[in-house]
Amino acid sequence: MPDWTNTSLIASDQEYDHAPLIRTVVTPDGDHGGVSSATLLVSALGIFEGFVDGKPDGPDVFSPGWSSYEWRMRVYSCDVAALVSDRPFVLGFSLGKGWAAGRIPFTTPGGFYAHEPAIIAQLEIVYSDGHRQLVGTDASWQSGPSQTTFHEIYDGQSVDARIDVSGWNSDVTDREGWTGVSVQELDTHRLVPYDGPRVVRHEDIAPQRIWTSPSGKTLVDFGQNLVGWIRLSVSAPAGTEITIRHAEVLEHEELGTRPLRTAKATDTYTTSGGDDVFEPTKTFHGFRYAEVSGWPGELDPEALRAVVVHSQMDRIGHFECSDDMLNQLYSNIVWGQRGNFFDVPTDCPQRDERLGWTGDIAAFAPTAAFIYDVKGFLGEWLKNVDAEQAHHDGIVPFVVPDVLKFFERPNRPRESTCLWSDAGVWVPWAIYEAYGDEEDLRASFGTMRGHLDHVETLLSPTGLWDTGFQFADWLDPNAPPDDPFKAVADKGVVATACLFRSADLTARTARILGETEAAERYEAYAARLKEAFNAHYVDGGRITSDCATVYALAISFDLLSPADERAAGDRLAELAEANGYRVATGFAGTPFVLHALSRTGHDDVAYRMLLERECPSWLYPVTMGATTIWERWDSMLPDGTINPGQMTSFNHYAFGAVADWMHKVIGGINPLEPGYSRVLIAPKPGGGLTWASTSLDTPHGTVAVTWRNESGQVDVDVTLPEGVSGVFRGPDGTEKDLAAGRVSLQISA
Q: Would residue 353 show up in a list of annotated catalytic residues for this protein?
């Protein structure tokens, strides 16, 4: 990291609702030749957009993102050599409250990390003769108001184009009415490299339909539930006020805003009288629909574009099959990940929450790591997990960054809880399995150990984790809408099973890293949990609370004897049939229920569950027109009304964890070694599907499997990249060694 000795954290010296602009004029040092390099380093409490000589310093928005600011302020680094002039130029920043100074979470006023946005920046110019010029933020900088008169992540942004800010980031002459800045205290040890991907704009989406609602409102449908904002182009008399409200769904043919709770999700624009283009880059919305009011005349569809915004990630995994409903489900899973991977892995992108809930990503991480390359994204987030845990007695909190610690919630005491806290183990393991880098395990090994060591102090004398608060099988569809805690699965069974998996994975991690003493400790820890689980919860293959989730976890985590596992698998299949093959699991059980059925020889039952269309099921939302994964199995009721509970979202990726089964069982792509350096190809055709195609860009190249079922004979094409070997396993259990290249095989249907 650079020397920040002569650089300060600064903020506008004026308190107002405007998003502040901050700038200085840089005069290049003369007589040193041309510019050899120029690097801009920036961090902020809040968010910023940087400009050098009037040009953006990069494509990113919402930088430097959301981190555990108390210990980690991420430093953005950008090569700006192409932007630096040989004459005086402006270095400027447009600031926003973001997460640090804005309203989060829920109904709180926020501002937990900062009362106003503040920035620290340093521009280093190196000339051809080696001379080095440093320009840093200090008391000499100036600040002024922008056209943004209001901005909050939850509530939206207001822009008044009548405010003249022309030339603020390019004109070196003094700015009339601008004032100075205040210098803030900052421990520069908090400044750390920004290693994760940036949040950027992606594609634009045109309106699919514009119409008038029964109440006379102008509504717009973009055809896809997405995350970002609407870019608006308009020419209207000065002072015309245009308002855009956002929502994910319609209810009673009007904008369905109740799920937003207190989030206003409203952008307001006041026109200049000329040709205006409005783009609110200091807020974001989760929406498919918009309500537009104040538009002069008839709304032109060419004037609106939905801009998709999320963290930059490379798409690496693909799935497609003969069933259009499953293809739409898969698209919904992909879009759910896109919208919620917005600097941190959030629960939802639309209401007054948008937090990094650890339970959601614990459930979804294997799926996420297949669809996109999330090594950098989740690796950066795990650094925040480590920071939060290290300062809070080994507890991996409910959300990371842990904004909930700033206020008390009596019904949710600050303590470890299964699945959510287990994310400190499960997520790094999922990254390791996907990409094969031991350093990812090493970076999180302290978090893994801290979690297990702390939870050990919470166990009851029986050796079970049956004490304290648990979300457990959160959002079990059998729970009432107003009480999602009331899952059927016994909380002690769920917690002890999840902890066993964490102990087992931590022991395996210790072996991989050569930590022999730790490996032996956690192997013994896992053995004790397994013994206690079977002694207290298992009787002849029946598990306490006798529901889908407890069997799914016990089978998938290898907690049972062979005889008990067979009996448990048969019981799980019986329960599925008795329930009409509808889903009966929440956050804990859903990622594992189909895997447990397949592991115990019930692929036919797993397919029937996957393809069920009655609520609750994965395909029910598809029948209702969903384009992302819902938070609740019945976020929208069959009559088109929104679930009556106070908590529901139409973009929540956790239940999309079913894609892991689609990749591994329908597609047949499984890692035999981390990073897919060796693979198991084991597709299991079924469910009436006539073909399926799955591919994954691994660190070694592309693995692809396509199968087609024609007249009872299944033709399978497998492609492995150079240097990767594997095993092909047919549905009957026969195996064949595979080498790199392409091979065609036939199996029985």
A: yes
